[in-house]
Q: What sequence folds into this?
């Protein structure tokens, strides 16, 4: 099989998809079936995913962002509401909150040892206008859902889980995404379950499910697939919906990838353990989430020693053809959200100065982990020598 995209740029990329004949065959079957939009494979994928996370309903959608948007609308989030979420996050959640007319309110993370939301700061961010808590399981590590659920109960709020990083991770014996009122997943190419572009919304709540079903496809009461099968001949429009639908080609990939998810998460775990062991030898580097019980090990982050120029380190690693990233520039620092954000977020600010994301994907080899860590140690030693004083 020929694979060329990106191969010449990086010796060790940040993330990588594993293409094989099973995936090729599944897509081929979907193509030759002659039905490409939403149909039986999407229905199978939704059923299999609902069973996997342990919810009654799952709706495949065009992206994780669409999943978040539908989740917020399905709980009735609208103008005048506030939704609290961690700022150390991908911007999609904040944008989706803003699209409903509500205001995102940012909370802090626990600290460099645990980059998930800090429940105490989350509580301080709650006001009489708060409608929901939109929690993230950063890097695949479940956030403190016990504290979140207790706060939600006490203040009468809904919990939406952004489980984009955490398919397969567990909290208290339950899969992430299935604990809050609604859960959202992304199947973007760098995710643990990758189909290209795609997402899933899951819920146990029948009313929420019905709203998601309608809004996903223009607020229409039947789908093209229903009409094709003779299950409906017309439709009504009962809500202001979108085209957030999924398709058969990507569902075909999703069905294959879902079967492999836990095995691949286990491979990620072994690599994350190797990173933790190797990085322990570098002075001042912090690897968060020590001792975590469960994770989907979506990304491998580390905090560089205080005062180190992260961007210079990343540039040096790039010169050695090792791709890195930074998850995330905090949302409260972006031009769009800066003015609206007045809460101090000291832990987020400190983490954001020091964070770097290192390569991690299931078919990475332990020797490559060691290569990355050796290169990092080398670059940090050189920076230390050249630092004034
Ligand atoms: C935490 C988080 N939430 C939401 C999203 C949005 O997902 P998508 O890119 O599928 O729209 C992402 C994707 O990068 C993400 O990492």
A:
């Amino acid at each position: 099989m020929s694979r060329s995209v990106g191969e010449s740029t990086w010796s060790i990329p940040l993330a990588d998809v594993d293409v094989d004949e099973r995936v090729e065959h599944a897509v081929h079957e979907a193509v030759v079936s002659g039905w490409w939009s939403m149909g039986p494979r999407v229905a199978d994928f939704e059923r299999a995913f609902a069973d996997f996370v342990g919810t009654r309903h799952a709706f495949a959608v065009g992206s994780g962002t669409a999943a978040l948007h539908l989740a917020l609308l399905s709980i009735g989030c609208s103008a005048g509401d506030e939704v609290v979420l961690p700022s150390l996050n991908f911007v999609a959640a904040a944008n989706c909150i803003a699209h409903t007319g509500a205001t995102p309110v940012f909370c802090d993370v626990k600290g460099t040892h645990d980059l998930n939301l800090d429940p105490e700061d989350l509580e301080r961010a709650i006001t009489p206008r708060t409608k929901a808590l939109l929690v993230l399981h950063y890097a695949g590590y479940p956030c403190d859902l016990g504290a979140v659920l207790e706060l939600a109960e006490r203040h009468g709020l809904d919990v939406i889980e952004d489980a984009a990083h955490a398919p397969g991770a567990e909290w208290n014996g339950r899969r992430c995404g299935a604990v809050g009122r609604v859960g959202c997943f992304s199947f973007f190419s760098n995710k643990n379950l990758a189909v290209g572009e795609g997402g899933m919304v899951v819920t146990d709540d029948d009313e929420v499910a019905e709203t998601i079903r309608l809004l996903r496809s223009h607020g229409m009461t039947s789908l093209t697939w229903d009409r094709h099968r003779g299950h409906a001949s017309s439709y009504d429009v009962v809500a202001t919906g979108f085209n957030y639908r999924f398709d058969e080609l990507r569902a075909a990939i999703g069905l294959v990838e879902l079967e492999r998810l836990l095995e691949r998460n286990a491979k990620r775990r072994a690599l994350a353990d190797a990173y933790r062991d190797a990085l322990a030898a570098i002075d001042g580097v912090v690897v968060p989430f020590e001792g975590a019980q469960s994770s989907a090990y979506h990304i491998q982050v580390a905090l560089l020693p205080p005062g180190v120029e992260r961007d210079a380190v990343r540039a040096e690693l790039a010169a050695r053809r090792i791709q890195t990233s930074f998850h995330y520039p905090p949302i409260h620092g972006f031009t769009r959200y800066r003015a609206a954000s007045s809460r101090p977020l000291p832990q987020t600010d400190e983490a954001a100065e020091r964070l770097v994301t290192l390569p991690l994907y299931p078919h990475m080899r332990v020797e490559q982990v060691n290569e990355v860590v050796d290169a990092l140690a080398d670059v940090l030693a050189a920076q230390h020598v050249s630092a004034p004083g």
Remarks:
- Residues 248-279 form the longest helix (32 residues).
- DSSP finds 13 helices and 13 strands in the chain.
